[in-house]
Amino acid sequence: MKKRWILTLLLSVTGCSSLSGDLPGRTSIIPKGSLRIFPGYAVAHADIVQVGLLLAAVYMVTDPTAPNWEIVETRLPDNRVLYKLSMQYLHLGGDGEARYVLARRAETLAREQGLAGYQIQRYEEAVDSRIFLPQRTAYAEVQLLAAK
């Protein structure tokens, strides 16, 4: 939802060239002039807007606040759970944390169901190779242990 709003804002701002009159207009919604940063250096208002839009686009693609791993959980009979973890394509670190993320999720699930704990039956890590943006994945089978 947030990304869609930002994309709509970016497209509307970059697509606007005039507030009124015939399209395409001859005036810009960005005022002419510049911002004086130092006595001998000024930056045009249009350049400031372009840099801001570029930064917003980069933030929208990378989103540093998003979790690095997406978890798909499949519950099976006999208190078994299959996990598939997929790492974001563009990320800042987190390459070695798949097992920790899995353990944290399995512990939470066991606690929610009032069970004693969990045991990892099978664990595999892989990199799905692609020409562009390979993706790190992890697969696991976890046995939830009944309370004693």
UniProtKB/TrEMBL annotation:
PROSITE patterns, A to Z: PROKAR_LIPOPROTEIN (PS51257)
Domain of life: Bacteria
Protein name (database record): Lipoprotein
Upper classification of the organism: Bacteria, Pseudomonadati, Pseudomonadota, Betaproteobacteria, Rhodocyclales
